[in-house]
Every structure is written in C-alpha cells, then in structure tokens.
Amino acid sequence: MELVFIRHGQGEHTTDLPNSLNTRDPALTNQGKKQAVSLRSQFPLSSTDLILISPMRRTLQTVEIWSEGIHCRKIVSPFLSPRMFPQKQEWTTLPCDELLAKEKIKNEFKDFEIDVEEFSKEWWTKGINKLPEQEFVLIADVFLNWCKSTGKNRIYLVSHDGTITSYRQFITEKKLSRNDFPKEVGWLKVNW
What we know:
The protein contains 6 helices and 6 strands. Strand 2 (50-53), helix 2 and strand 3 form a beta-alpha-beta unit. The protein has a 6-stranded mixed sheet, sandwiched between helices. It has one domain: Rossmann fold. By secondary structure, the protein is an alpha/beta fold. The protein has helices at residues 30-42, 57-66, 102-108, 123-126, 133-149, 161-172, and strands at 2-7, 50-53, 73-76, 113-114, 154-159, 187-191.
C-alpha cells in the first residue's frame, strides 16, 4: 500500500513566529489556499480516492480546497493530529495545535467523515502531540494496519510536519530530524 503524506498549506500560526504559535484554531492564509489549489495538478483526485485528515482547520481547509468538486471519501482522524518532533515531555501543546472538537468539524465540514473506530475514541480528546515514543509506535502500528485494512492501494494522509516525520521514522526505521520536515504542501510517498 502506498501512503502519500501531504503537509497542509501555510497556516496563520506560521506568519509571525514565535508569537503566532499562540493563535487558536488557525486557518490557512491566502498563500496556503493557493498552495492547496496547487495540489489539484500534483495529485488529481477521483471519486475512488481516500483522504485521511488531521482534525485541524488548516488541514481540513487544505483538503476542502484540493478536493473541491470531487466526491471522494474524506475521513478525519486524531491519529494524524499535530505531533511534537522530537518529543520533549517538558513542552506543552501550543494553542495552534489544539484539536478541533468533533461537533465543530461535523458542523463546518459536512462532506467529511469522523473516524469513529473504537480504538480512536480516547484520542479525540488528547491527541498524539505529547505521546511518548514507545506509546506512539503502538498507536502508529494499529493506525497503519487499519489503513491497510481499507483495501486501498493508495491513501492520502494530510497532516503536520512533526506527525508526518514521526510516521516516516516509524515506517522506514531510520532516525530523522527536524531537517526532514516537509515544507508547506510538501509531500512524500512511503510504502507500508
């Protein structure tokens, strides 16, 4: 199975660092919206595609713009939410990385499904941002095996730089650093 990890477009939380990291529920900037449009030519979608998305406004908007007019399956999952990389247990979750509530997503992004698998329920409130590495690898294994169980040959996963790098490190078993972060709407393909 081919996994195509895509980082969201430019978000409001990156425009005035480090102050903008305190922005709650940041949306895409105008530049981020243009970047999301560019995904249409890089990855043309069809109705048979599956996109898994982090429960954050910037990732949801990226997919909403990219998939406009295409009725493919779009599932929001807490297993793609922001993740610190590398892990620093003394750090706290930044306001820009607090998950959107399921009800808010349902009300504002009506074409998106909410991941309601039994194993994901508890992660909707705490996310994976500060999950210790040994616990993350267990969650990553369960999540990626669920992806495989969909029977899709390719799945798009729209997420965040630290989350994508965490999954990539888990899958490839290679030590990665912040230098390996994808840029805005940057992407990489990994086989699982």
